[in-house]
Design a protein that fits this description.
Layout: H1 5-9, H2 11-15, E1 22-24, H3 27-34, H4 41-56, E2 60-64, E3 75-77, H5 81-95
Parallel strand pairs: 1-2, 2-3
């Protein structure tokens, strides 16, 4: 997981470590530690450097689910368990039969 500008500066070295199969671009942490927001050129340059270093080594690149349409990313961070439980509960409740009336 690369989450700081220092990590980005070492992305090529990190990707070259034997046994590394995947690299995850930690979007929120990267923004917090760099002081840049997603969409800003400086932020996007950090993400691009992670992406380029990862793909150059033939590794899998992950990121947040919101980036599912970005080219080069192959796996994504799902929402937390409370969001997933709530979503599942909503589906179950929506599809549940109406209670019987007496």
């Amino acid at each position: 997981m690369i989450e700081t500008p220092e990590g980005v500066a070492n992305a090529e070295k990190i990707a070259a470590v034997p046994g590394i199969d995947v690299i995850f671009a930690a979007s929120t942490d990267l923004g917090n530690f760099s002081g840049h927001k997603q969409g800003e050129p400086a932020y996007e340059a950090l993400v691009t450097r992670i992406k380029d270093a990862t793909l150059a080594r033939g590794l899998k690149l992950g990121g947040p689910l919101a980036w599912k349409d970005r080219p080069g990313f192959s796996f994504f961070q799902a929402p937390g368990e409370t969001v997933l439980i709530n979503a599942g509960a909503q589906v179950i409740l929506k599809n549940a039969p109406a209670p019987a009336t007496r």
